[in-house]
Design goal:
Aspartate Aminotransferase, domain 2; Aspartate Aminotransferase, domain 1; 7-stranded mixed sheet; binds pyridoxal-5'-phosphate; 14% strand; 5-stranded antiparallel sheet; alpha/beta
């Protein structure tokens, strides 16, 4: 007898009722936060206009940065299509804040794969080439801070930077809630007030009702083709933080004499504003979609991270498969339900910046956007599919429907 897909979908949604209502609560709070910032900072349609050349007095650019600073609880921001991606934005922060002889201490283990060349590449203008010392403390248990080790090291080294990655990257830990960062940040500042706290906030924006900047991070940084772009921003990155930190970073972002006075974008800024306005809702759609798929795979006996009784802290869901074939089939199914290039079959390839072969599904309107339904996985054991996004819950549901039949 054929399986009753519709019935299974309904039953799965029933199980997720509480999760969905929690997601709605947070997105309502975040929607108000964004709306209030727009009104308070007097966003008008003039802000959408593009500029050319140097872009002096570009009101759209400057207002957008102020809105981001307000929404994320910082004093100042850099928000720009000229930050080409998340990796570029994070690297700009690191180069801006770290000098020869400084120590950067990562307290969430090894940072995201594409930053390794930035940190310790050889003869490629890496931080190591510039004399910055990198130190690392791994998370313990299921992704908890190793408080004692961290405090000891901070006391001993007085690092210029304590660095955290909120989302899990290509690891099987859980993501970290800003609420769980508060105590750490307070104590680090107590021991070493000069230390700057930087959070790679990729995939975390609007998942909670606060951001790491609200609990004492000096800088948060992320990509506009993930959560805060709302699926509409065509490219770019953001950096939000204290005035002092953003000033230092802006000298590196452009140059010390120009800082944030320049930077044009002829196409204009409407999509960046509209995307930010949509982002709390879009993130909620993605969270519901990943919860649905997670529950279905969990019910089929696969381990998923975070498990469905855990509160999600980023928009990524990992599904752990037994074989590379099962994994590849999952990724290919994401592609097969994509609105763009849905007819294409993805295969593993050697992607720049990554060590293992990677398979990716990104049938997206914005190239490589991962607030849209997308999936990527390095081909290595354990075989973990990292999937995320979905501009609408209904879209992810079509994917869930396929999975019920496939596994
Ligand atoms: C995506 C991501 C990055 C890098 O962003 P890109 O835009 O892909 O360069 C860095 N850190 C984390 C945790 C990410 O998820």
């Amino acid at each position: 007898m054929a399986i009753d897909t519709n019935k299974i979908l309904k039953e799965t949604e029933e199980k997720l009722k509480n999760r969905f209502s929690k997601i709605d609560e947070i997105s309502f709070k975040n929607q108000k936060k964004v709306l209030n910032a727009f009104i308070e900072l007097k966003v008008s349609s003039q802000c959408f206009a593009g500029t050319t050349g140097y872009g002096y007095s570009d009101v759209g650019r400057d207002t957008l940065a102020s809105v981001y600073a307000k929404v994320f609880g910082g004093e100042k921001a850099i928000v720009s299509p000229l930050l080409t991606c998340g990796t570029h934005a994070i690297s700009t922060v690191l180069y801006g804040l770290l000098k020869n002889g400084d120590v950067m201490l990562s307290v969430t283990g090894l940072p995201y794969d594409t930053l390794h060349e930035t940190l310790f590449g050889k003869n490629n203008s890496s931080l190591e080439d510039y004399g910055v010392k990198y130190e690392q403390i791994d998370l313990i248990g299921n992704g908890e801070f190793d408080y004692d080790k961290i405090y000891k090291k901070v006391k001993k080294m007085k690092p210029a930077m304590v660095y955290l990655q909120r989302s899990r990257g290509y690891s099987s830990r859980k993501a970290i809630s800003p609420y769980d960062m508060k105590e750490l940040f307070e104590n680090v500042k107590k021991i070493s007030p000069q230390t700057k706290i930087v959070v790679d906030n990729c995939y975390g924006e609007f998942v909670d009702d606060i951001e790491p900047t609200n609990v004492g991070a000096d800088v948060i940084v992320g990509s506009l083709i993930k959560n805060p772009g709302g699926g509409l921003a065509p490219t770019g990155g953001y950096i939000v933080g204290s005035e002092e930190a953003i000033d230092m970073i802006s000298a590196r972002y452009t140059n010390p004499s120009l800082k944030l006075e320049i930077g044009s974008f002829e196409q204009g800024y409407r999509l960046f504003y509209q995307g930010l306005f949509m982002a709390p809702h879009t993130v909620a759609q993605a969270l519901k979609g990943t919860a649905l798929v997670g529950q279905i795979m969990e019910d089929k006996g696969y381990k998923v991270i975070p498990s469905n009784d855990e509160q999600p802290e980023d928009i990524v869901k990992s599904v752990i498969f037994n074989t590379a074939d099962e994994l590849i089939k999952f990724v290919q199914t994401v592609q097969a339900v994509s609105p763009i290039d849905g007819y294409v079959l993805p295969i593993p390839w050697d992607m720049p910046g990554y060590t293992d072969q990677v398979i990716m599904a990104a049938g997206t309107f914005v190239g490589g956007s991962s607030i849209e339904l997308s999936c990527d996985s390095p081909i290595r054991a354990p075989y973990i599919a990292y999937f995320q996004g979905g501009l609408t819950y209904e879209h992810v549901k079509t994917f869930a429907e396929k999975l019920i039949e496939l596994y």
